[in-house]
Amino acid sequence: MPTTSVFAPAKINLSLHVIGQRTDGYHLLDSLVAFAPVGDMVSFAPGRGLSLRVSGPEAAGVPVDRSNLVLRAAELAGGSDLAFHLHKALPAASGIGGGSSDAAAVLRGLGAALDPEALTRLGADIAMCLTPHSQRVQGIGEHCARVQLPPLPALLVNPRIEVATPAIFKALSQKTNAPMPAQLPQFNEARACIDWLATQRNDLQAPAIAQAPQIGALLDVLAALPGCHLARMSGSGATCFALFSTQSDLQSAEAKLRATHPQCWIASGVLGDQTELARPSACH
Ligand SMILES: C[C@@](CO)(OP(=O)(O)O)[C@H](O)COP(=O)(O)OP(=O)(O)OC[C@H]1O[C@@H](n2ccc(N)nc2=O)[C@H](O)[C@@H]1O
Ligand SMILES: Nc1ncnc2c1ncn2[C@@H]1O[C@H](COP(=O)(O)OP(=O)(O)O)[C@@H](O)[C@H]1O
């Protein structure tokens, strides 16, 4: 029986501007997104009905019933008689789109072609995860336009605090904030890109810190790491990232942080285009 495996990379919101709100309550975003070579693995093989088994270091608390985005995506794609296995390496509900990336991996694996509106109804982050390359994301997540970014060495750190996405959006006092420039600059190297990113924002960071001050404390620790040029929260939190101009700076900072913060979830890699890594592979 062939098994298909699909890598589901972590999504990082390098910037996240909240620029308005729709009448249905969903917020309009302008976000620059890149993907990390760190993620979950979704595998499936022929089975009886739709089933799901979840394992891996971050499996605790992940739903195994029909509410799991793996099964919801499979249903939406019309999949049947498939046994799924989800190896969970990304902390759930942490602002790096684990569940959304898992759903996108299922859709890639099944070769399902769904329009961005349908994907967004399943989850606002799923359309952007479908093709995991650097992109500018607008609307509530359905308008995705590819952008070219230099490779960005990054440390990803989750302080092991869960913040609920709807609550963070709700706590945002100003819903209409400035978008990114209509035309994004072109960058030849990481440092210039990071310096420009530092002039942009994550509008959900302040409300997340107000709810969980430990996020602010973690950002201070990351910003103080040698070689760190920018520390910011991803999505609605609580995972934060630190950007470096070289991989050797990244490696030294990672070693230092692992020694001082063993309680955190820590991963590292070069952010950018993960489409090759995320291509479905079949094994017999
Ligand atoms: C904030 C972001 C930024 O990329 O990332 P995460 O923190 O989830 O990683 C996303 O917009 C989250 O996307 P996703 O987690 O898929 O959201 P959904 O399940 O569709 O929605 C969860 C809830 O978030 C709020 N929501 C989500 C997206 C959006 N554009 N406006 C919103 O107001 C709504 O309250 C919604 O009920
Ligand atoms: N495959 C999945 N992996 C993780 N969480 C999932 C999955 N399917 C459903 N969920 C639910 O979706 C919620 C959001 O998870 P996730 O996509 O990881 O976070 P975020 O939207 O913050 O990036 C979690 O609270 C979890 O209960």
UniProtKB/TrEMBL annotation:
The EC number(s) this enzyme carries: 2.7.1.148
Residues of the GHMP kinase N-terminal domain: 68-128
Source organism, top-level taxon: Bacteria
Alphabetized GO MF terms: 4-(cytidine 5'-diphospho)-2-C-methyl-D-erythritol kinase activity
Metabolic or biological pathway: Isoprenoid biosynthesis; isopentenyl diphosphate biosynthesis via DXP pathway; isopentenyl diphosphate from 1-deoxy-D-xylulose 5-phosphate: step 3/6
Keywords: ATP-binding, Isoprene biosynthesis, Kinase, Nucleotide-binding, Transferase
Parts forming coiled coils: none
Ranges for domain GHMP kinase C-terminal: 199-261
Similarity comment: Belongs to the GHMP kinase family. IspE subfamily.
Protein name, entry field: 4-diphosphocytidyl-2-C-methyl-D-erythritol kinase
Species whose genome carries this gene: Thioclava arctica
